[in-house]
Description:
This protein is of the alpha+beta class. The chain has 3 domains: 2-72, Ubiquitin-like (UB roll) (Roll), CATH 3.10.20; 78-164, no CATH class; 185-337, no CATH class. The chain is built from 13 helices and 8 strands. It has helices at 55-72, 78-87, 92-99, 105-109, 117-128, 130-139, 146-176, 193-205, 214-232, 253-260, 290-303, 308-317, 319-322, and strands at 2-10, 17-31, 34-45, 50-52, 241-244, 247-250, 264-269, 272-277. Strand 5 and strand 6 form a beta hairpin. The termini are far apart. Zinc ion is lined by residues 11, 13-14, 16, 18, 45, 47-48.
Amino acid sequence: MDTIQTVNRLCECCMEEHAVQHxxxxxxxxxxxxxxxxxxxxxxxxxxxxxxADEEMISRNDxxxxxxxxxxxxxxxxxxxxxxxxxxxxxxxxxxxxxxxGDKTITRYEGHQVQDKAxxxxxxxxxxxxxxxxxxxxxxxxxxxxxxxxxxxxxxRERYEHLQELYLKQAILSRYARYMDRPELSGYRELNxxxxxxxxxYFANAxxxxxxxxxxxxxxLWYSDALSFKRFGHSITGLVYxxxxxxxxxxxxxxxxxxxxxxxxxHEYDNGTAYEFLPTxxxxxxxxSTEDMDILETxxxxxxTSKKNDIVEAMHEEExxxxxxxxxxxxxxxxxxxxxx
Length: 341
Ligand SMILES: [Zn+2]
């Protein structure tokens, strides 16, 4: 029995005013045939040597016991349910409407009623899957107040985009994990995805940039890194490039494009679909240094108006490309003889 504090008050046990201790006792009990141990709060009357609890303590002890039961059974605790709801800033009642549950269900789950496994799974899915939340929200649009609907949609979209970005980032980093011990392959730079993002946007927003399709963009990235290596002995981005038939392509390029968040337009041609990257409203490049931007400007001056075939041809003439076997990693040391200065 630990004493938290002692306060002079009317003791409901002996009905006299005296110093009453507020104590915590570790209790063991059975709930739904599961044994649970938790901290329970009581008042202690030392005159009668008796413990008693007021209404608030009884309620608090009950929730503490049920939270322990929830933890033992692998269910969300009341606080975790509140936490999920707060991530979407949605009211108890609106969350019930969204899920098609009775009006008071969430209020009860955030208190004394232990949720069943099926409802627990649904709440966890809401937590991990903002896309699903958005789908449910759309279906419930008619029964939600318009302002609340718009607010929830905005928050859920932001959460979705944020998670999406995290997944993509993880996917890229896991592909680069194997190169961590080979700094010469990434031009002695650790992969910096913020820089990659800024460079792709820089190219998409450049005034003298035309025909910025996927193949060209990949070459522009390599030329930027190779020129930086030639000038300063290190790359800018830390990307690792592979020699493919049309020239250098960074490992994980599809995910990198997706991650960059730069919008593109799809064009259908006889030999497939081409993705043309478009300017963005954001024209800040906080992760690029002046030296980096000088390099990008040099690359734009060389290839800004080049068509895909021109830059592919130029790449095929580079020593770095000629000396690399198909599909091998292109070594940065070849960049010393890059055609651009
Ligand atoms: Zn007393």
